Amino acid sequence: MITFVQFASFFIFLVSVETVATVGSAVLNTWVGGGSELRVHFYKNSTVEDEGGHAFWDSLQSENQCCGVDGPQDYAIVHREIPSSCCARAHPLREGGARRHLHASCLSEKSYYMTGCEETLRQKKSFKGKIFITTGVVFVLLEIMCIILAIWMARTIRSERRRLQQNLQAHFET
């Protein structure tokens, strides 16, 4: 049979593990995630003809509504034209005249995405990290409230038991 001390020890262990996980995720969310690997991939993609690399960047830019690593100026640095995946209206279309026309108008009107993918991905990662941290904090607080409630209930039951024992003892003494 599990004693109160074993139960309390296990519960404190769980709260400790959740606290460590929450603090750990906060630390990792702050430290991890430099965009250097994204930057290396971008410049490699710009200098080497690789369909897989182009597909990766097209997908990344269109899904995240971003352009380049730091912004569309990255393409000017490597002497490349801003791709259609940086244009909201041009990229969903298949290759053809309409896509080329929308891409050309996007470039002339400068209506392409202005935010770099590094910043966009950092914001998304930060948001997911905040959700994880908040969930951890909520669970830790909930468990602490449960511990406080359990201690209060144990004290109430103990005092009620003492009162009943005193009443019984007083009843039998008279």
From TrEMBL:
Positions in coiled-coil regions: none
Pfam families recorded: Tetraspanin
Signal peptide feature range: 1-19
Membrane topology: Multi-pass membrane protein
Protein name: Tetraspanin
Transmembrane as UniProt keyword: yes
Biological source species: Parnassius mnemosyne (clouded apollo)
Compartments (UniProt record): Membrane
Transmembrane stretches, start-end: 131-154
Keywords annotated in UniProt: Membrane, Signal, Transmembrane, Transmembrane helix
Major localization class: membrane
Record Gene3D superfamilies: Tetraspanin
InterPro entries: Tetraspanin/Peripherin, Tetraspanin_EC2_sf
Entry's Gene Ontology cellular component terms: membrane
